[in-house]
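Good morning C.,

I know you're traveling, so I'll keep this short. The sequence:
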Amino acid sequence: MKRAIASMLLVTMMTVSLPASATDIVEDDTTSSRPTVYAMGLDAGLVRPVGLAATVIGVGLFVATLPFSLLGGNVKESAKTLVGDPARLTFYRCLGCTTGQDNENTTAHELHDDAQ
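The C-alpha cells, ready to paste straight into the viewer:
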C-alpha cells in the first residue's frame, strides 16, 4: 500500500511540474511575443492535456487535504497551488505562449483597452 501511495504522489508531482517545464522548452525565440507553429502544436497536443490532468489531480488532492488545510489556516494557498496554477496554465494562457510571452501579451491588451 505504501508503494502505491508513493508511486501516486510521484506521478502527481511529475504531472504538475511537466506543463511548466514544457512551456519553457517550446520557447524558440526569447525576443518574439508570437509563438511558432511548433510551439502551438506542442502546446495543444501535449501541454494542455497534461495541464488538464494536473488540474483534475490537483482538485482531488485539494479535496483530500482540505481538512488539514482548514486546521493549518492555509486553504487559499493550497487552492491556488493545487488548482489555480495548473488551471491558469491550462485554460488562460494563450496557445503556444510561454509564461513570459503570455504576460507580455496580457499587458499589451490591457494597455490597448485602457487607450480606448
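Safe travels,
E.
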